[in-house]
UniProtKB/TrEMBL annotation:
GO MF term list: hydrolase activity
Top-rank taxon: Bacteria
Gene3D superfamilies hit by this protein: alpha/beta hydrolase
Domain named AB hydrolase-1: residues: 48-157
InterPro entries for the chain: AB_hydrolase_1, AB_hydrolase_fold, AB_hydrolase_sf
Heme listed as a keyword: no
UniProt KW keywords: Hydrolase
Protein name listed in UniProt: Alpha/beta hydrolase
Organism classification: Bacteria, Pseudomonadati, Pseudomonadota, Gammaproteobacteria, Pseudomonadales
Pfam family membership, one: Abhydrolase_1
GO CC annotation: membrane
């Protein structure tokens, strides 16, 4: 039986969300990649520039709730990391932590660095930490949220083959995997947001299986990985 095509509604939802957040969609060229990012506000005296860096299999829109809570006069920069979100993916490129940090460093060179703050979640936390060391002018602060690169269990061999089906949760290959990805957090029970995210982001995620595998393997191969 042929599968029923599912419409990809995420581009429409993403545009509406951006409008509600009063953010501008920008584009920059970085290391041969077309990188898309959101910008709200402008740099200026007394205004911090805060860069929000998302995690693996994620995107700039994951910071939407944070953007609602942050002061409206701050200058916010929220990129889709190269290879993820709306930013360009290149099969021959490296997506190790350090290389991604270097790309962000080059991008940020276009902005004032005297009042720069970094925040990163998961994979983005590891990239933020490396980026802080690579900037010509150190950031005022670095905030790491559930950062990758900090092992919780030193006795775990991260290079060993995945046990059980954790791999399928991180890189879903079918709709069942997408459902489990969004409903395996919290108490592990299905939630209304989890079901909504499955339908909204499922088509996009399923198209990215090969690129997500590439990026994940590069993360594990990075010399700065735990």
């Amino acid at each position: 039986m042929a599968s029923i095509p599912v419409p990809d509604l995420w581009p429409i939802a993403r545009t509406g969300q951006r409008w509600l957040l009063r953010a501008k969609r920008r584009e920059a060229g970085v290391d041969g990649h077309r990188m898309i990012f959101l910008e709200r506000g402008r740099p200026g005296p007394g205004r911090p520039t805060l860069v929000l860096i998302h995690g693996f299999a994620s995107m700039k829109e994951n910071w939407a709730l944070w953007m609602q809570k942050l002061p409206s006069d701050w200058h916010l920069l929220i990129p889709d990391l190269p290879g993820l979100g709306e930013s360009q993916y290149q099969p021959a490129a490296s997506y190790r932590y350090e290389r991604q940090a270097e790309r962000l460093r080059d991008w940020l060179s276009e902005y004032p660095g005297d009042n720069l703050h970094l925040a990163g979640s998961s994979m983005g936390g590891a990239i933020a930490a490396i980026l802080a060391h690579k900037l010509n002018q150190p950031p005022r602060s670095v905030t790491l949220l559930n950062s990758a690169g900090i092992p919780e269990h030193p006795d775990v061999d991260i290079n060993a083959p995945f046990k059980s089906d954790r791999d399928a949760i991180l890189i879903p290959g079918d709709w069942a995997g997408v459902y489990r990805m969004f409903n395996s957090v919290g108490n592990g029970k299905p939630t209304v947001p989890g079901l909504a995210m499955t339908g909204l982001l499922g088509p996009d995620l399923l198209k990215r299986q090969a690129s997500l595998r590439h990026i994940f393997n590069d993360m594990l191969a990075d010399a700065l990985a735990p």
